[in-house]
Structures are given as structure tokens and as C-alpha cells.
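Quick log. Single chain, no ligands specified.
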Amino acid sequence: MSNEYDFSCDDGVSSPLTEDDMRLCCDLVLREEGIARPCMVSVSLVSDDRIRVLNDAWRDVDRATDVISLECERPDDPALAPDEPCELGDIVLAPAYIERQARSFGTTWADETRLLLTHGLLHLLGYDHLDDEEAQAMEAREEELLALMPCDAPIDHVVLTRHREDVEA
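-> predicted structure:
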């Protein structure tokens, strides 16, 4: 399986992960989720101001956030031909926001970025955390996947409070 990635980084925005690091993270998630079809994923690194605009436009929440996922297709879509790649969608990360958040959760900037890239990709694959049961399943899966990645330190229990609207980084 050969997945395709389109990485972009806004001027003045930096990331603790290289494109190769992000590619390895995404490939691991897709492989462990049993996705056999080649997938295309866009990963954008943007400023807090830009993610705030996107969060307002797509989620009607006028504030910055750590990650936004915009789904296009699902790998199991029957409309896709057997050999046709799946355009999963876009993951938008705000590295400055993530760096502040990492400090508040006691993780490294790189590990928090790995977590949020994994989180965003799981959203594209259909995971969500709208209720407690879904949140627990998603948290557990994130923990399993992160345990398979080279991380700076073991990641303690993943808590989706990182993604609640009333939590500021």
C-alpha cells in the first residue's frame, strides 16, 4: 500500500515533526486500522489565527483549536473502484496551540503533535467523541496506536478534554 500525502506549512509556522515523521505516523494508523486501499491525506500546519477562521467556518466555534479534520471519502465507500485511491480528507494542525497545550498536559510538543495527527486521522476514518462511549473508544484506540510509535516518552492516558470547547491552551 502506498499512501499519498500533501504537506503544507504556512509561513512563520514550525513543526516539531518532519514530513517523514508525519508520514510514518499516518501510515502506521492506516495500517493498524486495516486500511488496505491506498489513501490520500492532506496535512496542513497553520497559525492560531488561521485555524480560528477555519474553526468558525466549519464548526461555528470562533476560537483557535488544536486540530480540525475535514472528511472527503471513506475507504469502504462502495462507489470507489477496487484499485481507486481514497481521498480521506484534510487534517489541519495548529502547532503553536499544540505546543502550549503540550505543556499543560505534561507531554512534549512532538508527542502532542503525534497524538493530534493520530486523532485527526481517526476522525477521517469515522471515529468521534460526541458521547462518553465514543470518546472512551477513541481514547483507547489512540493510546494503542501511540504505544506503537516512537515517542519522546510514554503518553499517559489520553484525555479528550483537550478537545472540549471550554478548555483553553
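The two ends are 37 Å apart (CA to CA).
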